Amino acid sequence: MESVERLKGICQDVRADIVRMTNAANSGHPGGSLSAVEAMVALYGNVMNHRPADPNWPERDRFFLSKGHACPVTYAVMARTGYFPVEELVTLRKLGTRLQGHPSCKALPGIEVSSGSLGQGLSVANGFALSAKLNRKPYRAYCLLGDGELQEGQIWEAMMTAAHYKLDNVCAIVDYNGLQIDGDVEKVMGIAPLADKWRSFNWHVIECDGHDIAQMLAAYEEAKQTKDKPSVILMKTVKGKGVSFMENVAGWHGKPCNKDEMKQALDEIYGKGNGQ
């Protein structure tokens, strides 16, 4: 188990990794990756039962990235927790890389299922969670969703399914940053009042600051302790968090930094003068 301070330090490194790897690829999705850093660092660092050296360990907890375009944060956290060398991150989206532009379970051990088509991740997580119940296995299924992704109808079917089968080993995590590729989520297709909607589907709802490591750890623990119903963590976040010119700007959904912007971003992440 890592200390909160140590996890905060890993968050800095992961944010820098996201900026560097999308710059090296000259493509990718930094905005929604930066908003999910604390959630992912807490999950892989202190919450999930997993073995980076044995990614197919049968008793492992499973993580599903439903918003597959945010794979830079997943790759960076996996590298920082020992799944593969950090130096490999700059191969993102390069020909022949294991780090595809959307995660591929055929390319990279530790990726449970290929994703990218939005709206499908929670259904997949439900399937694994139901299998665990039927086979009396202890593992849990975690699924990271984008808030814009909740506009997909399959998500709501999956919400009904998880509640119907009382899948208390499912934990959905909603990156509630309020922006999607086309702009403000509420203007594109409103999802509010979000907490009330999940509760009406008989989910246990946990609301927290998605950039507060201690709150994220407490939220994950509350989800673990909840019985007979699935849990969802609605984490309030900032798209592009940690880089001032990216924060709350929808245009950074799928646009990498250029060299000068990367220098400024790294200076802000690590402190002025330390950008590399």
TrEMBL record:
UniProt keyword annotations, A-Z: Thiamine pyrophosphate
Domain Transketolase N-terminal stretches: 12-265
The protein's required cofactors: thiamine diphosphate
Protein's UniProt keywords contain Flavoprotein: no
Origin: domain of life: Bacteria
UniProt family annotation: Belongs to the transketolase family.
PANTHER family membership: TRANSKETOLASE N-TERMINAL SECTION-RELATED (PTHR47514)
Annotated protein name in UniProt: Transketolase
